[in-house]
Write a structure and sequence with these properties.
Shape: globular
Number of strands: 36
Strand order of the largest sheet: 1-2-3-4-5-7-6
Largest sheet: 7 strands, mixed, barrel
Number of helices: 13
Length: 757
């Protein structure tokens, strides 16, 4: 069993559990795979000259205005007022430049099929132009988070600039497209990002080199808080050898990193973390509180070398040893591979990925189809020969022949050489069984859903998974019927009835096969399964404040009101509001004292700089949830004090308890911000005209839920069992139902969640 020195809880509010890891989006129209699209930029001629022949520092930092035109089969799109600049480092002085296009530079919110930016990379050191695109193709195929790529012809002011690799930009949109929770910190890590310990002060990790931060925060830059990175580095460097496996798994996605590390070895990526302490991202996934490692800049691969090292023969367990940059201590590589279990996993991934992606049939098919697609654009590319003297013949031979100089292998010959050398370098093959991830659907009421993914190879006996909840075993299944995705896909699930008296439940998952077993997490995680008894309550909220009440700056923003329903004063320190239960500490309440029977108002306006009572989030006018948390005495655990889920409504309509502290929620036509709800005017069903069907009270501890208009339908458990039916009724009887989450489905196709307390 793995051991740990601390527990980190990640809770999230979903009727069904979300994806266990990042999910890559489809390529879509911006990244066509079967043809070469054309990008035409139109600029002021003087700006075009400055871009190509002016000062490179200015050309790489100042966006110049242009019109963007994208053409392909069945597509002809034009965007005006985009910004264009040079991008890259060494390519800035190369004849063939790389370009960045910013679609919302002058027009806020403008995008191209969900992209705010487009990177057109020259990849001028690669005669095949395939290496980076092929590497990303494989990364995406393994379900690791990776950039989408395609090939495009670039024209500027009617001048053909050549063939480019259109490579998806790393930013908040990249994260939003892959992670269910996208509010985490994303760090771009460039040389010399060793991840060595710099001290406990988070600001020490903001140091700069060559005019940029070595660890550059790309999201949440207004807060600029490096506490999470400093904590990760501290665990990575300072956890004892005995505690290290469990401690690092609490803050880092180890299996994902080992897969990426195996791909670095197989593609010969010496310019990433394991080799050059360079070119990677770290994303703190709020869903599980762990950092994901994401590689970046993959053109120096598949036999591209600048330092005279034969990377096809390099020892995978001692990567970059003996090179000029291999002597630095790299704790993320050195400490992880020093753990026998992780070395076994790494060896397994090298074999598995080698078999799946580096067999000659796959590489040959990819290279040959790409060469056929790109021959004409390369033949016509006036800049392709200028940097290294590449010719069209070199391009045609690039899959099977080394060009010489820094190009030591063809793409196909690299794959053959790397796989052959591994046969004599890898440890002996042994059976492996390990859990990749676990997660729960907390905070939940009634049914606790637990999922786990497992990796295995070479086992003589069948695998069994068991979820241990509060010390009791519950079988898990990979049959597609237990909230476990599809049957036989390695994702296992269990749906467990939870004692209504519990407010939290500790769990672990055990995987076993014969005498082999693995546990995750290494000490029990805690899922929130009920509300803690609390006198502090959410009393009223408004998600569409048009004219009701203004803040000190005269702005009409979203708001919520808390109420002390007890008989003693409450210190609000250690309490938190959030619209995302995966991030319970989103808004720490200022340390104030709330007297018995008193109210306090907070502005949910995403303007924390306006004062201590202004939260860093807004409410959605179409409906969402609002939760009140208390930080537990146990590090990383949270107690849920109150939760309200609401739908869309008209402007200046508030949702509140019918009287202060009452369990029944209603809609008010006369909101009472920072005042008593007692006696406020309640909207009737025929008065509530919002954008969608409304139901209230929800949550409810009563016997009846009302609708804004009559409906027919059924009420089901989250497992699909029908517990109530109704016909052309404006209310639903929920008496006798146990506490939990239910799904109401109307005959009009509307689906609403109802929480019975």
């Amino acid at each position: 069993m793995r051991t740990a020195s601390f527990l980190l809880l990640s809770a999230f509010w979903l009727t069904m559990i979300g994806p266990l890891s990042a999910q890559n989006p489809p390529y879509g129209p911006a990244f066509l795979q079967s043809e070469v699209a054309t990008v035409r930029l139109t600029m002021v001629p003087a700006d075009f000259d400055d871009l190509l022949f002016g000062d490179t520092e200015t050309a790489s930092t100042v966006l110049l205005p242009a019109t963007f035109h994208y053409m392909a089969s069945g597509m002809d799109d034009t965007l005006y007022d985009v910004g264009v600049r040079l991008r890259g480092n060494t390519s800035l002085t190369a004849p063939k430049k790389s370009f960045k296009i910013d679609f919302n530079d002058a027009v806020p919110g403008q995008d191209f099929y969900g992209l705010e930016k487009m990177n057109l990379n020259a990849n001028q050191n690669d005669p095949s132009l395939l290496r980076a695109a092929l590497s990303w193709h494989i990364i995406r195929g393994t379900s690791l988070p990776g950039s989408r790529t395609s090939f495009v012809r670039l024209e500027i002011n009617g001048n053909y600039m050549g063939l480019y690799v259109n490579t998806e930009h790393f930013d908040d949109d990249f994260i939003k497209a892959r992670y269910q929770y996208d509010q985490g910190n994303l760090y771009k890590c460039l040389w010399p990002a060793t991840l060595q310990d710099l001290g406990s002060d988070p600001d020490l990790y903001k140091y700069e080199l060559y005019g940029r931060r070595v660890y550059e925060l790309k999201t949440n830059t207004d807060v600029d808080d490096y506490t999470d990175l400093a904590h990760f580095v501290d665990v990575l460097n300072n956890a004892s050898d005995a505690d290290f496996p469990c401690a690092i798994e609490q803050v880092f996605n180890v299996p994902s990193f080992l897969q990426t590390l195996a791909l670095d070895v197989l593609t010969g990526n010496w310019d990433g973390y394991a080799g050059n302490k360079n070119n990677f991202y770290l994303y703190l996934n709020p869903q599980n509180g762990r950092f994901d490692y994401i590689p970046y800049d993959l053109d120096n691969t598949w036999g591209i070398d600048w330092i005279g090292q034969n990377w096809a023969m390099e020892d995978p367990y001692d990567w970059a040893a003996g090179t000029d940059f291999g002597g630095d201590y790299r704790p993320l590589y050195d400490r992880i591979l020093a753990v026998d279990l992780y070395r076994t996993w790494f060896t397994h991934y090298l074999r598995k990925l080698s078999s799946d992606w580096f067999d000659m049939e796959f590489v040959d098919n990819y290279a040959n189809s790409a060469l056929a697609l790109l021959t004409d654009p390369i033949d016509e590319d006036p800049y392709y020969p200028l940097t290294f003297g590449f010719t069209s013949a070199d391009f045609q031979a690039s899959a099977t022949e080394a060009w010489g100089g820094h190009v030591e292998y063809g793409v196909q010959t690299w794959a053959a050489a790397r796989v052959t050398s591994l046969e004599s370098q890898l440890d002996a093959e042994v059976p492996v069984l390990f859990l990749l991830t676990t997660e729960d659907n907390g905070p939940t009421f009634g049914n606790l859903h637990i999922r786990a993914t497992v990796e295995s190879a070479g086992l003589a006996e069948l695998i069994d998974l068991t979820a241990w909840v509060e010390g009791s075993p519950h079988p898990m299944y990979d049959d597609g019927a237990h909230d476990d995705d599809g049957p036989g896909d390695g994702v296992w699930g269990a749906i467990i009835d939870v004692d209504a008296a519990l407010t939290s439940a500790a769990y672990q998952v055990q995987a076993s096969s014969g005498s082999m077993e693995d546990w995750l997490p290494c000490i029990p995680a805690t899922a929130v399964v009920g509300l803690e008894p609390s006198a502090l309550l959410i009393n009223e909220l408004m998600s569409r404040n048009a004219t009701t009440t203004a803040d000190d700056l005269g702005e009409f923003d979203d708001w919520c009101e808390l109420y002390n329903a007890g008989e003693t004063a409450i210190n609000l320190a250690g309490k938190f509001l959030t619209d995302n239960t995966a991030e319970p500490d989103k808004f720490p309440l200022p340390p104030e004292i709330l007297a018995p029977g008193d109210w306090i108002l907070y502005w949910l306006d995403n303007d924390p700089e306006q004062g201590p009572r202004h939260a860093p989030f807004k409410l959605s006018g179409s409906g969402e949830s609002l939760a009140l948390y208390k930080s537990s005495s146990t590090a990383g655990e949270w107690q849920l004090l109150d939760l309200i889920e609401f739908g869309a409504c008209d402007p200046d309509i508030s949702l509140g308890r019918i009287t202060d502290g009452d369990p029944q929620w209603v809609w008010f036509s006369t909101p009472t911000p920072d005042g008593s709800n007692n006696g406020a005017s309640v909207l009737g069903a025929n008065e509530l005209t919002g954008q969608a069907l409304q139901i209230w009270p929800n949550p409810t501890s009563g016997n009846t839920v009302r609708f804004s208009s009559a409906r027919s339908g059924r009420l089901c458990t989250t497992q699909g069992r029908v517990v109530r039916s109704f016909h052309e009724s404006a209310e639903l009887d929920v008496s006798g139902l146990k506490a939990g989450v239910y799904l109401m489905r109307t005959n009009l196709g509307e689906v609403r969640r109802i929480l019975k307390l």
